[in-house]
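Renewal narrative, Specific Aim 1. Our central claim is that a sequence can be written position by position from structural information alone. The example that follows is taken directly from our test logs and has not been curated for this report. It begins with the structure tokens describing the chain, in the order in which they were read.
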């Protein structure tokens, strides 16, 4: 996984005895979509399909240039499509999961609090795989919900492995690029009551198979960083 030169700078600052706030941010890039050709469709390069029971995945995904930035354009119609990518991160160094996204459409009638309507527009998971995967793996999904308030935590009604954290709520910011920063280490401690191991993967999902509706969103750059403040323009 690419590690930017900010890592070297941060280590140099540590050797000099500078306080962490004086050091450059450490960052581990997960994806910026430059390794895929514009217009590439389906499961992007470097990612794998992540099967979900009864998902009927279509992988209606396209690598695009949107508003001057590379992104993955995700569309869903009566399906549940999920992709995953392995990561190598140390949450003691880079606990902040940072990504940009633009949500265009919520699945109509979705409500993750009920099994029969448990859909979300594009959302991003940190994944701790543990065998057997269907029973013991732990996934924290970061979602944007039309109705549930931000900071809501909900266990999935369909899988004991999944917990959702709602990071943004409502339709006011639809069709706008936004950058989110979530402290994955702190979230894991809140959800599971213990310090986390390092996640082994990141997954992206879009889900409309329960409401039989449509959803649309863009996911931009994804990284783990040491700072809750942006280390560079996004």
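The sequence written for that structure reads:
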């Amino acid at each position: 996984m690419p590690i930017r030169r900010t890592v070297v700078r941060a280590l140099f600052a540590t050797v000099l005895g500078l306080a962490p706030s004086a050091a450059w941010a450490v960052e581990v890039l997960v994806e910026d979509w430059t390794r895929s050709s514009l217009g590439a469709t389906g499961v992007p390069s470097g990612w794998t399909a992540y099967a979900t029971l009864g998902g009927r995945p279509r992988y209606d995904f396209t690598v695009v240039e949107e508003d001057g930035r590379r992104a993955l354009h995700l569309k869903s119609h009566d399906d549940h499509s999920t992709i995953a990518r392995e990561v190598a991160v140390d949450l003691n160094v880079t606990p902040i999961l940072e990504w940009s996204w633009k949500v265009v459409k919520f699945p109509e009638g979705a409500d993750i609090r009920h099994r029969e309507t448990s859909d979300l527009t594009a959302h991003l998971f940190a994944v701790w795989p543990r065998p057997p995967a269907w029973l013991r793996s732990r996934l924290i999904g970061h979602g944007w919900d039309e109705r549930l308030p931000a900071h809501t935590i909900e266990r999935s009604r369909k899988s004991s492995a999944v917990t959702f954290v709602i990071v943004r709520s409502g339709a006011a910011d639809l069709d706008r690029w936004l950058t989110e920063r979530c402290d994955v280490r702190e979230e894991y401690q809140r959800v599971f009551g213990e310090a986390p191991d390092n996640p082994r993967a990141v997954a992206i999902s879009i889900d409309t198979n329960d409401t039989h509706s449509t959803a649309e969103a863009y996911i931009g750059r994804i990284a783990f960083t040491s700072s809750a403040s942006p280390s560079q323009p996004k």
